[in-house]
Amino acid sequence: MAAATRDKQGRPVVAVTGIGVVTSLGVGKSDNWVKLTGGVSGIRRISRFPTEGLRTTIAGTVDDVYRDQMSPAELSERVALLAGEEAVAESGIGAKGRFPGPLYLAPPPLEIEWSDRIKMAEMAASTADTGYPDLMRVAREFAAKHGAFKFGIIGEHLAEHFGTEGSPVSLNTACASGATAIQLGMDAIRRGDCQAALAIGADASLTPESLVRFSLLSALSTQNDPPERASKPFSKNRDGFVLAEGAAALVLENLDHARARGARVLGILEGYGEKSDSFHRTRSSPDGKPIIASLRNALADAGVGPQDIDYINAHGTSTPENDKMEHLGVSTVFGESMRGIPISSNKSMIGHTLTAAGAVEAGFTLLTLQHQRVPPTINHAIPDPAITLDVVPNVARDAKLRRAMSNSFGFGGQNVCLVMALEPA
Amino acid sequence: MSGRREVWITGVGLLTCLGEGVEANWSHLQRGDPPPYDDKSFAPYIVHPLPPVNFDKQIPKKSDQRQMEQWQRIGVYAAGLALADAGIAGKPDLLDVTDMIVAAAGGERDVVADAAILTGMRKTAERGTFLNERLMSDLRPTLFLAQLPNLLAGNISIVHGVVGSSRTFLGEEAAGVDAVRIAQARIAAGQSELTLVGGAYHATRWDVLLVFEQSGVALKGAFAPVWDRGPQGGIALGNMGAFLVLESREHAQARGARARGRISSVASDRNKRQKGDIEATLLRQWNAIAGRIDRPQAAVISGAAGLQPATGAEHATLKEIGLPVRNTGTYIGHGVEAQFVANLGIATAVLEHGTLFAPAGTGDIGSSPADISQVLVTSVGNWRGEALALVERVV
User: Fold this and answer.
1) What domains are defined for chain A?
2) Partners of residue B111 in chain A, C-beta under 8 Å
3) Among residues 119-138 of chain B, which lie with CB inside 8 Å of chain A?
4) CB proximity A339 to B under 8 Å
C-alpha cells in the first residue's frame, strides 16, 4: 500500500468529492453555475408575506422549493436535504442512507415563529389581553396538531436521512456559519477521526421578523426597485445586503480514501483561518487586524503565500462597512499583487444566504476552479473610488486558476477564511 | 485515539441556583440541603432561579450589560469565572490564542412586545401589515443581538478578550456535549492548546417555558427529585452558566497551571429513541472505557433531567453498570445546553474532595467511595443525544 498522502504539515489531505447547491437561482449546481456566470440575479420582490410597512421588500428566496406555509425550519431542512442529496450522489460515497462520517450543519437559528404564535393565540381565544400564559394553556394541544418546537430538529432529521455517523453537530457563527461547518469537517478528517464528513450550510428563514431585525440594524438595502439591482458589492452606491435563502453541501473526504475508491476529486481544502474580533458586536475592528489575521492564518494553514492565490471569492455583502473592511483586509495581506487577483462577490447575484453563505460560496469557489471561469460582481455601475480591486465587474471571465480563497465574516466578530485548490497532479 | 495528548481542565466557572463558583456549589451539594426553586413566579411550572448576582464583577461596563440579555450576562459571567480560575483572565497573550466553543439555545424574546402584538392582532383585519408595522416599531435592535446564538461568544470576546477562534453549537443537551467533545479532540490532536468551552441558560422566562410546554415536559405541581417525578416525569429548568478552560497538559505545565482534572474521553451519539435505544447506546459507550475504570475509586455524575422514559432508561443502565451515582439536576435544575459542562465542573469538585455529595432521590445509588479518582458524567438529552464522559484526577 502506498504511503499516506500528507499535507505540508503532515496531516491527511482533505478533498471535496461532492457539491450540492440550492439558491434563489435554482436547484442544483449546473443550473446555478450557468446563471451565476451569466450574471443573472435571483433577487426578487417578496411574495411569501405582505410587505406593507417594511423598508425592504425584496429578497433572494428559494421559490423553486418553497411550498405554501412551509416554516423556516421546514424550508431550511428541505434545501439542506436537496443540496445534501446532490453532493452525496456526486460523491458516490457510502450507500443510500449510510454516509460514512459525521454531519456538520449550519442551520439558521430557529425559534417559534409568528405564524405559530398566532395560531396558539387563536386556540387560546382569550377575551382579555393575550399573554404567554394563554399560549402555555394551549401549547400541548397546538403541538399535537402542528408538532413541538425543537432547536436541533433539522440536524436530527438530516442525520437520520443521510445516515451520518455519531452526534450531528449544528453550529452557528452568524454569517460565517457555512465556512465553520466545513472547518469542523476538515478538523475531523485531519485528526483521523473519520475518512469523510458531510458539511451543510442551509438557511431559508425569511420571515417578517427576520427581515425587520436586520432592517433595524440598517444592514439591508432599501433600493427595492428594481430588485435585481439592489445587491451591488464594492459599488459606491451600495447601501446594504439583500437577505437571501439557500443551501450548499460538501462531501469532504480524506484524499487517499477518495482515490482508493476511484472517486472524482473536485478540489482540495488546503487550509482555513479564523480570528475573532473583540471590537464591537456588529462592526469590525477599524484597523482590520482580525480580518487580516484570519486571511493570514488560512494561508499559513494551507502552507502557501499570497502569491499563490489566483482568485478570491469575497464575502462582499454590499454593506458600506463590510466591503470597505474586506478591501482593507485583502489589500493588506496581498499588497500590490492584489491588483492582479480577481475578487468577485456571488452575493451580487444570490444575495446574502446568511448561515448558508460560507458553504454556498465555498461550493461556488470550487466550481470556479473547476471551470476556470470567474463569476462576476454584477451591478457594478458606479465603482467606489476608495476600493481599488478587480471585482470582475458585471461579466464573467475565463482565467487560469489553480488556487482560491473564500472569505466569510459575521456579526459577533466571526472571521473565517478557506483556501481551496485543484487536485495536485 | 490513544497516543494523543492529555487534555486538562485548568479552569471552572459555575453559576447556578446554588451560587457562584465550584466551591459554593460543592458545599451546598455536600450538605444535601433542599435546592432553591421557585414554584410561584411561573406557576404551575417549577424553575430554579439564580441568587442575586453582581454582574459588574465580571462585566464592568454597564454599556456592555445593556447590550446583552440575561442568558448572555449569565454566560459571560461564568466564562469570566472560568478564565480567572485558569489564571488567564486579563492576559492578552494567552487570550489571543484561546479558542472558544459555546453551546447556545435560541435567544430571548421580548414577551411584553409579543403579547401586545398578539393582543392587537385580534382587532385587525390586515394581520400581515399590522405585524410588519408593529415589529418595525416594537423590536429593539439590541434585542436582535441577544437573539443571535453566537452573540454569547461574541460578548465573551468583547468583555474578556477571548479571540483565538469562536464557534457556537446549537441544539439542546447534545450541543453542550459536542462542544466539549470537539474541544477535547482538537486539543488532544494538537489543533488547539487552550479552549474555553461552555454554555448558559436563562430558564426563568415564559418564552422558553413555552417551548418545553409544547412537548409537555416542563415540571409542574410539586417539586420532587429528578428520579422521582412520576410516570411522565418532568424537567425543572434552571438558570445556569457553566464554562471550562481546557488545555493541553504541555501548555498547562509550561505556564504552571493547576489541573482540576483530565478529560480522558467524551463519547456522544444519537439513535432513533426506540425502546431500549438509550440503554444500548449508553452501554456501548460504557463498554468502550470500562477496562480503564478502577471501580473502588470511580463514581457517576448523572445529568438526567427528570423526563421519562429517558431518565428511567438512564437509571436502569447505571444500575447495571453498578457504580455509585449522584444526579445534579435535582439540585441545580436543568440548564439544557449548559448542563453537561456544569456537570463536568461538579465532577472536578468530586475529584478535588475525593467523595460524592449527598444523595437525593431513589436513583442516587451507592455510598461514596473514599477516594474518588475517576468520574463518569452522563448526558441523556430530553429528546435526543446520549453521552458519556470520563474525567480523571491528575496526579
Assistant:
1) 14-111+151-421 (3.40.47.10), 114-146 (no CATH)
2) 131-132
3) 119, 121-122, 126-129, 131-133, 135-136
4) no
Please choose, from the candidates A370, A76, A107, A60, the residue with its C-alpha nearest in 3D space to the C-alpha of residue A243.
A60
* Per-residue model confidence as pLDDT tens digits over B97-145: 999 999 998 778 999 999 999 999 988 999 999 999 999 999 988 888 8
Which of A115, A154, A212 is the mutation pick for testing B, counting most B CBs within 10 A?
A212
pLDDT score for B1: 42
Chain A nearest-CA residue for B383: A150
Nearest by CB: B384 against A131, A156, A213: A156
Report CB contact under 8 Å: B163, A413: yes
CB-count burial class (<10 Å; 0-12, 13-18, 19+) for B125? exposed
pLDDT in tens, B55-102: 999 999 999 999 999 999 999 999 999 999 999 999 999 999 999 999
Distances (CA, A) of B2 to A192, A193, B9, B293, B395: 12, 12, 19, 16, 19
Q: How far apart are CA B182 and CA A188, in angstroms?
A: 9
Residue of A nearest to B166 (CA): A276
pLDDT in tens, A49-87: 999 999 999 999 999 999 988 999 999 999 999 999 999
* pTM for this prediction: 0.98
> Smallest Cβ distance to A170: which of B111, B132, B171?
B171
Q: Look at residue B351 and tell me whether its pLDDT is greater than 60.
A: yes
B132 vs A50, A111, A414: nearest CB: A50
Q: Could you read off the pLDDT of B238-296 as tens digits, one per residue?
A: 999 999 999 999 999 999 999 999 999 999 999 999 999 999 999 999 999 999 999 99
Torsion, Cα of A124, A125, A130, A135 (10° steps): 10
CA A381 to chain B, closest CA, distance in angstroms equals 32
- DSSP per-residue letters across B74-125: HHHHHHHHHHHHHT-TT-HHHHTT-EEEEEE------HHHHHHHHHHHTT-S
Cβ of residue B382 closer than 8 Å to a chain A Cβ = no
Query: Would you state the cell numbers that stand for residue B293, as one nine-digit string?
Result: 475504570
- CB contacts of B127 in chain A (<8 Å) are 118
Alpha-carbon torsion, ordered B327, B332, B335, B339, to 10 deg: -40
pLDDT of residue A127: 83
Per-residue pLDDT, B3: 60
Give the nearest chain B residue to A294 (CA atoms): B165
Residues of B in contact with A275 (CB under 8 A): 163-165
Q: What is the ipTM of this complex?
A: 0.97
